[in-house]
Design goal:
Order of helices and strands: HHHHH
Strand content: under 5%
Distance between the termini: 99 Å
Number of strands: 0
Structural class: mainly alpha
Largest sheet: none
Mean pLDDT: 80
C-alpha cells in the first residue's frame, strides 16, 4: 500500500499561486504582453463587429472603434520585434477598419505604410467662399 498525499487534488494554496505568478513574471516580457494585447484587441474587435459567425448579436461599433485605435497605438511599439510577422497584424487591422467603415457607412482614407490614416483630401472650396465666410462671420487666416 502506498501513502497518498492528503493534498492531492486540492486547489493550490495562496503561496503556490503567488510562486507561480512570480515565475511567470520572471519569464514574460513587456513586448510579449503588448503583442498579446494587440492580438486580443483585433480578435475582440472582430467579434464586436459581428465578423465571426454567430457574433452578429455582439455588434458594438464603439467597441470596434476603441479596438482599432488601441491597435493603431500599440502596433508601432511591437512591429520591430515582430519583423515580417507584423504584416499579418497590419492586414488584420486593415480588415477591421474596412469592416468598421462598411458598418458605419464612413469612407476611410487608405492606410499608409506606418499604419496611420492618410490625411483626407480637403473638400473643394466654393468660389468666393462659403456662406459663413461671405457673411464676415468666419475668420480666415490672411484675409
Amino acid at each position: 500500500m502506498t501513502a497518498q498525499d492528503p493534498n492531492a487534488g486540492a486547489p493550490p494554496t495562496e503561496e503556490e499561486l503567488r510562486a507561480a505568478y512570480e515565475a511567470e513574471l520572471q519569464r514574460i516580457t513587456v513586448d510579449d504582453v503588448l503583442v498579446q494585447t494587440v492580438v486580443s484587441l483585433l480578435n475582440l474587435g472582430g467579434r464586436r463587429a459581428g465578423l465571426a459567425p454567430g457574433t452578429e448579436q455582439e455588434r458594438d461599433l464603439d467597441q470596434v472603434r476603441s479596438a482599432i485605435e488601441g491597435v493603431r497605438a500599440l502596433l508601432p511599439l511591437v512591429e520591430p520585434q515582430l519583423g515580417p510577422d507584423a504584416a499579418q497584424l497590419r492586414q488584420a487591422l486593415s480588415q477591421l477598419q474596412l469592416a468598421y467603415a462598411r458598418l458605419t457607412g464612413t469612407p476611410r482614407a487608405p492606410q499608409g505604410s506606418g499604419g496611420a490614416s492618410a490625411p483626407a483630401e480637403p473638400a473643394p472650396k466654393p468660389e468666393g467662399g462659403g456662406p459663413a465666410q461671405s457673411s464676415g462671420r468666419l475668420w480666415v487666416p490672411g484675409q
